[in-house]
Amino acid sequence: MSILEYLEKHLPNHKASSIVQYLAEAKCELKITKPRKTKRGDFRQSGNNLSISINHDTNSFRFLFTLVHEIAHLKTFLDNGNRVKPHGIEWKQNFQELFYELKMEEEFAKDQGLLLVVISELKAPKACSGVNLDVEKAFTPYDDVSGIYLDELPLGETFIFRGHRYQKLETRRTRVMCLNLTNKRKYTINKAALVEASE
Fold it and tell me: What are the tens digits of pLDDT across the range 138-196?
């Protein structure tokens, strides 16, 4: 399947074509990758090689949001090189502008509740959509997954995450301090992580 055909699964043909054309003119390769635990997408620059990668297991809304996020990184690099912060004001402005230039609000308007959350996020976008629990909760109903958000478990509760049993200890700003009950080590886990409540 070509990149254009893949994009057409998530977007009307003319929008998919315009994104493919933009990436081609920027000489940036779009790669669809296997699922990664720590990221949903990224932008990379190595010498003259530019690439954007996005996980293939993401739903259409999350895919489009991640795609615009990474294209904003590309545009920020093309405009400024490596002279600005990856998620600085230039990237935030490009993220906002590209979302509307690419008419993404038309796609997200299929779910008005989701659109309102996304528009709110665009006013002060974060480095990763998963950091914002409201954004994560808005996207998750379209994922083929089950579980409970770690943020919703009471302190002291035990749960299963990626095959390991933990106890929830302390909630921080975006992460939760947890105790691995097998090796007795403490780890921080994203508060938006979906976990399985333990008996």
Answer: 998 888 777 899 999 999 999 999 999 999 999 998 899 999 999 999 999 988 888 99
Of the candidates 197, 199, 198, 162, the one whose C-alpha atom is nearest the C-alpha of residue 187 is: 162
pLDDT digit string, tens, across residues 69-98: 999 999 999 999 999 998 999 999 999 999
Which domains are seen in the chain, by residue range? 3-142 (no CATH), 148-197 (2.30.30.30)
**H or E element: which one contains 44?**
strand 41-46
Global pTM reads: 0.80
User: Looking at beta carbons, which pairs linking 17-24 to residues 24 or more positions away fall under 8 Å?
Assistant: 18/102, 19/67, 19/71, 19/102, 22/71, 23/52, 23/71, 23/74
